[in-house]
Amino acid sequence: MVLMNKYKVTTIYSILHFFVDGICALAMFGWFVNQKNSYWYFFAYNFCAFALQMPFGAFLDMLIMNWSSKKKNAHVMYPYLFATIGVLFTILGAILHPILLGIGNALFHVGGGVGVIYEDHANYWNGKALGVFVAPGALGLFLGTQIAKVNGESIKIAMLVFFSILTIVLLIALIHKDPVKE
Fold it and tell me: Which of 11, 2, 17, 1 is nearest to 174 (CA)?
């Protein structure tokens, strides 16, 4: 367990990245793309998931800079908050609407990415953790897309529930101990 303690933030955010991107691919290709407004849904999701990362990132940076002198863990707390809201929006968006799904995706990527950057910097890893964080997202996209191609709604719903439960469990695991050095 030394490996998990040393790389806890990066490990959990990386696994969460797998599930968040898997949920998004499953929702988009399993349900939303098959509806009559599929072009609008695809555009809305992609706009929210990618174009909103920059303003969300700027806002997160501002929060951390303004609160780091008042709260000693602002660099950990705010990225976690963004990632948590992102995960919850992603799960809700998978059932409700692609805009919520895209906003959740953007918030998670900003929060998780910043959390990994801080752990990477604190441990002098020179950016190595970022590659570890990014890679599982591609695998999640692939798996989510493959599950979306399966015939049968019950399998897709079961996988969505399974991914969602594991994602929430991992979020809870991040709360228990912060390995980032102060």
Answer: 11
Is the pTM higher than 0.85?
A: yes
Q: Give dist(CA 17, CA 142) in Å, integer.
A: 13
126-130: which pairs have CB atoms within 8 A and are 24 or more residues apart?
129/7, 129/10
Residues in the chain, total? 182
Segment 8-23, tens digit of pLDDT: 889 989 999 999 999 9
